[in-house]
Amino acid sequence: MSECWILLFSVCFLVSASEHVTNVTAEPGRVATLPCTGSVHTDILTVEWRRAEEIVCVNTRPESSAHCENEALPSSGQKRVQLSSGSKERDVSLVLNNVTNEDDGTYECYVQHNNVGGNHRPDEMTLLCTVHLQVEPGDTAQEIEGGVNEDGGNKSGTSVALIVGVVFAAAAAAAAGVAGVLIYKNRNKGSELRYKRAASAEEEKLLGSSK
């Protein structure tokens, strides 16, 4: 009877462990680490990270290399995924560089053990970790402060150009206003001078006729 309880407890423990999901949040363009660590009592021969039945990363030499032998994620010409470190430390976390919105989803890490102790078949892949990656946009204010816009341009340079343009326009408007005032004053001065000359001539004419 006690053996049945032990077996039932073991099954429940394995099921609960396999259903445990770790949530990770990352911003586009950043680095995301999907944590996963194996047992210290077993050696890992092969590591497979999957997403929706798609194999994202395969490593058949985790004890000596963090390199993924295949890569299913869109990479834009560069390697974006690798393991965190060799499995000597049992750390088989997946590192995603330059995260994109398309990377959002649930990832599962399967491992193949060396069958020490007889717990697994040599060719059996067992689920070790489940991680859900949620990609969220970063703080717009921080992106603007950093000087890079969505199109890859420099926002600080654009702001400087805008300020210079506004200052130049204000200076041009002020100069035009001053020129207008001067022209108006000159015209009034000329009209006043002509009026005085005409009045003086008329006065001289009247004086001459009276003599």
Compact description:
The protein has helices at 2-19, 140-146, 155-210, and strands at 21-26, 32-34, 44-51, 54-59, 81-83, 94-96, 105-113, 125-135.
What does this structure look like?
This is Butyrophilin subfamily 2 member A3 isoform X2. Keywords: Disulfide bond, Glycoprotein, Immunoglobulin domain, Membrane, Signal, Transmembrane, Transmembrane helix. Residues 19-126 form the Ig-like domain. There is one protein chain. The protein has 211 residues and is α+β, with helices and mostly antiparallel strands. It has two domains: 21-138, Immunoglobulin-like (Sandwich), CATH 2.60.40; 140-211. The chain contains three helices and eight strands. It has helices at residues 2-19, 140-146, 155-210, and strands spanning 21-26, 32-34, 44-51, 54-59, 81-83, 94-96, 105-113, 125-135. The chain has a five-stranded mixed sheet. A hairpin with a 2-residue loop joins strand 3 and strand 4 (54-59). Residues 1-18 and 140-160 have low confidence and may be disordered.
Helix content: 25-40%
The rounded Rg comes to 40 Å
Question: Could you spell the SSE succession in H and E letters?
Answer: HEEEEEEEEHH
Distance between the termini: 153 Å
CATH class category label of the largest domain: Mainly Beta
Number of individual domains: 2
Which structural class do you get from the secondary structure elements? alpha+beta
Individual helix count: 3
CATH superfamily of the largest domain: Immunoglobulins
Give the key terms.
single chain, about 210 residues, alpha+beta, Immunoglobulin-like, 2 domains, 5-stranded mixed beta sheet, 3-stranded antiparallel beta sheet, 3 helices, disordered N terminus, membrane, Ig-like_dom, signal, transmembrane, Ig_sub
